[in-house]
Design a protein that fits this description.
Blueprint lengths: L15 H5 L3 H44 L7 H11 L6 H21 L3 H21 L1 H4 E3 L3 E2 L1 H7 L1 H14 L6
Antiparallel strand pairs: 1-2
Length: 178
C-alpha cells in the first residue's frame, strides 16, 4: 500500500473511482497532507543529524565572526568575561582569537561528526563560561533583573536551548564507545 492509498486516521479507504472524482480543493488538501507526512518521515529519520548540523553551523558562524575584530555583537562581553575568568592574564585580542578558534572547533566537530564527544565536552565548558556573565554583570545583561534581559542577556539566555539540544545529542550517542 503506498502513502497515497493509506487512509488518514479515522477515515475509510476510498475506491479508485471515488478518488478520481475528488474536487480540486480536496485534491490540494490531500496533497498537502501527503507532503506533510513525507516531510515528517524524512525529518524523523534525520532529526539527530539535523540538530547536530544546526548547532555546528551556528557555532562555526559565530566563531568565524570573532576572527575579524568588530564583527561579533558579543565581542565586548566575551573579552570582558574571559578577562574576569582569567584575572586579566589573557589579553583581549588573544582571548577573542582563542574563543573564535574554540567555537569554530566545536562547530566542525558537530558538522562533521568526527570527535563529536570531544566537541560536546568543549561545548559544555563554553556554556559554563558564557553563563558566568549572567552572574558577573547582571546590571549589563538585564534592564530589570531577572525578567527583562537586554539584547546581550538574550544572547546568553538562548544558550539554554543549546544546552538542552546538547543533552539530547549526548543521549543519542551515549551507547557508542568514546
Amino acid at each position: 500500500m503506498t502513502m497515497q492509498e493509506t487512509p488518514v486516521f479515522g477515515q475509510r479507504r476510498r475506491s479508485r473511482a471515488a478518488r478520481s472524482s475528488v474536487a480540486p480543493s480536496s485534491w490540494l488538501s490531500s496533497w498537502r497532507e501527503n507532503l506533510g507526512r513525507h516531510f515528517a518521515v524524512w525529518v524523523g529519520g534525520r532529526r539527530i543529524w539535523l540538530l547536530r548540523l544546526s548547532i555546528g553551523v551556528t557555532y562555526f558562524w559565530f566563531g568565524a565572526l570573532k576572527f575579524q575584530l568588530g564583527t561579533s555583537p558579543a565581542e565586548a562581553l566575551a573579552t570582558t568575561t574571559i578577562s574576569a575568568l582569567t584575572h586579566g592574564l589573557v589579553p583581549a585580542a588573544v582571548s577573542l582569537r582563542l574563543l573564535a578558534l574554540w567555537e569554530c572547533g566545536i562547530g566542525l566537530c558537530f558538522i562533521t561528526g568526527r570527535w563529536f564527544r570531544i566537541g560536546l565536552r568543549l561545548m559544555y565548558l563554553h556554556m559554563a563560561g558564557t553563563t558566568t556573565a549572567l552572574f558577573l554583570w547582571p546590571a549589563q545583561l538585564f534592564t530589570h533583573v531577572p525578567y527583562q534581559p537586554t539584547l546581550e542577556g538574550q544572547y546568553i539566555i538562548k544558550n539554554l536551548v543549546f544546552i538542552a539540544a546538547a543533552a539530547v545529542l549526548g543521549g543519542a550517542v551515549s551507547e557508542e564507545p568514546f
